[in-house]
Amino acid sequence: MVNWVRSGAPWIWLTAGAVSLSLLAVLGLLLLIGWKGLGYFWPAPVYQFDIEQAGHRSVVIGELYERKWVPLQQLKDAGVDTAGFAGDKIERYVIKTGNREVLGSDFVTVLAPYVKKQHLLDDVAVVERLKNGLAYGVPVALYNDGEKVSLTQLAERLEEAETIRRELIRLEKTELAELSHQFEQLRKNGGSDTSRAGLEQQYRTLEQTMHSLRRLLARDALVIRVMTGQEIRLPLDQVLSVWQPNQMSLLGKVSHWFLKLGSFVSDDPREANTEGGVFPAIFGTVFMVLLMSVIVTPLGVLAAVYLHEYAGRNAFTKLIRVAVINLAGVPSIVYGVFGLGFFVYIVGAGIDNVFFSAELPAPTFGTPGILWSALTLAILTLPVVIVSTEEGLSRIPNSVRHGSLALGATQAETLWRIVLPMASPAIMTGLILAVARAAGEVAPLMLVGVVKMAPSLPIDGQFPYLHLDRKFMHLGYHIYDVGFQSPNVEAAKPLVYATSFLLVTVIIGLNLTAIGIRNHLREKFRSLEQ
């Protein structure tokens, strides 16, 4: 036993066990987030709950959202009549009823002893709307331009409404945006009355076209009977989709799940970010990280090359290295304050004074934007790239440098053609660490560019096509906003899990891309290292 301990085998097994536990913990966390988030898009069954409380009978229709056990004493303290309740704990149902405009809330809480009967409703439908969240009810009638038609035409009418809605969105994002851009250029640069009259005529024509499409979109309506017995009219211009989960087959549910997951990834958010998709946040996160990578990589490599290849071995160089290492421990919010004060208020204001003086006092670059966010995160992650690159340079044998110099190459040629290619795996390692940290940062971005809702993406079809002065959305900030600033936190909770899982997926995708490039470079230059 003593010899076994002295051999170091216990420490090997202890290390392996610690790594295994860490991997299991990370995997368990990902599974939990994925289950909570991705399960939101699965069509849950809808029940009818017959409730009797204090002699009063009522009906609740909705999804069984959550079941909790509540201590009996807690109910007594809350003033609930607990006469006839047995046991120390009582089960409580949280039912998602939707119909926010009718009931005032998305959820109803019911104690299990009050539920006399619970059964599935085959004819109930779930309606996804642009406003007021989901609606639960039994379809009663379908109207087309004021005339009652068969409910079997609902799918056809919904498809037609979706086509018109997408055409309206296309016109707003392309032709209307282009006209607005031309009006703005005309205002800046001046123009003839003829040019202005032509643009105004194009605008009136486009406005008439969009008005006609909106009239077509608003002519249909669906009537459903909700759990209160009231019949509510839902114009199809506000209805996105309708499904009957209790009548779906397994294949239908899987198809519905993929459809809703695709909509979540590709659509814009709505209802104060508590409904809809997260595409602008995905685009903003990826674009900001790529822009940050383009900035931080050359800066970090140049700094590491100078420190390792050119700087002397003296106290000043040691001080610089200590400063670089200490910068990695500075809280990220400090970088955000620095980015706001230096990049936005000094550099951005200077750019406005020189190049965009005609736009003042409305700032162009003198306001938070995606460029300043990328620069702030580049400075935040710069120490990681410097340290990783310098470690890679130190692992290259001096004999390689001496051999290159002996063959007549200059030091710059040796660095460019021999040393840096061999150190490229270490550079990619630094970039991987930088991406992993930058993609999840939120605090500094709140000061230098990220917003709750961005009106347009940083890339569009208008010259100069790449708009680095624009604000943007970010998955990390989206999680914070939905989870803590939402007016309906309970209803938005599944979206927090779904967005968190999506953020982890984006970070893993970016890292796997960088790892693939690093492994390719490592194999390419392995022979030189040997």
From TrEMBL:
<keyword id="KW-0813">Transport</keyword>
<dbReference type="GO" id="GO:0035435">
    <property type="term" value="P:phosphate ion transmembrane transport"/>
</dbReference>
<dbReference type="InterPro" id="IPR005672">
    <property type="entry name" value="Phosphate_PstA"/>
</dbReference>
<protein>
    <recommendedName>
        <fullName>Phosphate transport system permease protein PstA</fullName>
    </recommendedName>
</protein>
<dbReference type="GO" id="GO:0005886">
    <property type="term" value="C:plasma membrane"/>
</dbReference>
<keyword id="KW-0812">Transmembrane</keyword>
<dbReference type="GO" id="GO:0005315">
    <property type="term" value="F:phosphate transmembrane transporter activity"/>
</dbReference>
<dbReference type="InterPro" id="IPR000515">
    <property type="entry name" value="MetI-like"/>
</dbReference>
<feature type="transmembrane region" description="Helical">
    <location>
        <begin position="319"/>
        <end position="350"/>
    </location>
</feature>
<keyword id="KW-1003">Cell membrane</keyword>
<keyword id="KW-1133">Transmembrane helix</keyword>
<feature type="transmembrane region" description="Helical">
    <location>
        <begin position="370"/>
        <end position="393"/>
    </location>
</feature>
<feature type="transmembrane region" description="Helical">
    <location>
        <begin position="495"/>
        <end position="517"/>
    </location>
</feature>
<keyword id="KW-0472">Membrane</keyword>
<feature type="domain" description="ABC transmembrane type-1">
    <location>
        <begin position="282"/>
        <end position="514"/>
    </location>
</feature>
<dbReference type="Pfam" id="PF00528">
    <property type="entry name" value="BPD_transp_1"/>
</dbReference>
<feature type="transmembrane region" description="Helical">
    <location>
        <begin position="278"/>
        <end position="307"/>
    </location>
</feature>
<comment type="similarity">
    <text>Belongs to the binding-protein-dependent transport system permease family. CysTW subfamily.</text>
</comment>
<dbReference type="InterPro" id="IPR035906">
    <property type="entry name" value="MetI-like_sf"/>
</dbReference>
<feature type="transmembrane region" description="Helical">
    <location>
        <begin position="414"/>
        <end position="436"/>
    </location>
</feature>
<keyword id="KW-0175">Coiled coil</keyword>
<feature type="transmembrane region" description="Helical">
    <location>
        <begin position="12"/>
        <end position="35"/>
    </location>
</feature>
<feature type="coiled-coil region">
    <location>
        <begin position="151"/>
        <end position="216"/>
    </location>
</feature>
